[in-house]
UniProtKB/TrEMBL annotation:
InterPro entries recorded: CE4, Glyco_hydro/deAcase_b/a-brl, NODB_dom
Gene name as annotated: LOC112042631
The UniProt record lists the keyword Signal: yes
One annotated GO biological process: carbohydrate metabolic process
UniProt domain NodB homology: residue ranges: 54-168
Protein name, UniProt field: Uncharacterized protein LOC112042631
Keywords carried by this UniProt record: Signal
Signal peptide boundaries: 1-27
Source species: Lingula anatina
Source superkingdom: Eukaryota
Record has Signal as a keyword: yes
Amino acid sequence: MSLSEETIFRFLLVTSILSVGVSFYHCSPDNCKLPECQCLSCDPPNGLNIAETPQFVLLSFDDAVTQNNFKFFTEIFSDGLKNPNDCLISATFYVSDELNTNYKLVETLFQDGNTISSHSSTHRFPQSWWITASETQLAAEFDGQRRVLALRGHIPYQKIMGMRIPFLQQGGNTPYRMAQSYRFKYDSSFVTGPNNHRGFLNYRPPWPFTLNHQPGRSVFPFICDIGPCPTESFPGLWEIPLVRMLGPNGQTCAMADGCKTTSATETYDFLMNNFQRHYNGNRAPFGINLHATWFERNPHALPALRRFLREMSTHKDVWVVGAEMLIDWARNPIPNRALSTHVPWKYARGCRRECDCK
Ligand SMILES: [Zn+2]
């Protein structure tokens, strides 16, 4: 091979390697319209101005619900904090069975207005199992858990609309084929955001989007970090990505309890600093994704979270809601001023007993 031939060969080799994993994002408002389709974007949907865009705070808890961790949930909601429509704040519980979930307690969480989602039946190890699991196996895990939640937790089957994959481990297209076959409406398993503190400079987090068009790696290289990521189209299936947070020592975490804090003040500042990035930025939903074990290991964490939520309830444009309400809004993004009188939310569980609902 001559020198020039070798140069051309190397060029072709490099470009072919680069083209693997690089795809172009074909989503645009022309081929993707609400309520069934939303392109991945870092701007508020429907052309809303930042000033009229509600800031959503998504508090979520993963894994089994037990007598032991239920006391933490009771304490979090014991302050009776309310959203701007005078109804109680709520959270999302991604519940796995793991042979020790207490479904009576899950029923109570649902009755209090929280969103209940499926986080698999077994939550089995090893993590790599979730990469290779078949559609049938995943259906047994996610839809199977939904059926148990409906049967033993007395939650209407159709009200359990979402899923989160254990370990946030993607499994290519298979989990999403299963999600569509079994009519799940949303997933919240994509990990995104910077993985070092320098990346947070001028960082704009993404909004929830539908999987009609896969973002690939060309536009948002970090949208789905724990691959293999899906490559096919799943029309109408929403993704609520987990946006990493920046911890006090420069570490980053997709689950908030993955960032180490050593005091209540430091924990409060950690939550508030990350919140401000969203609130003073593009107002993309701010997720605080947790395992209740955080409160056991760190007695300072619960008072800090409660103080943070008290602060949130003083804002007229901040809403602490479960995933079901977020998706309801994402399909029909109305300005903040219209949300306070948004009738479906006035009659949601959790506000019926606590507000006049007129
Ligand atoms: Zn889990």
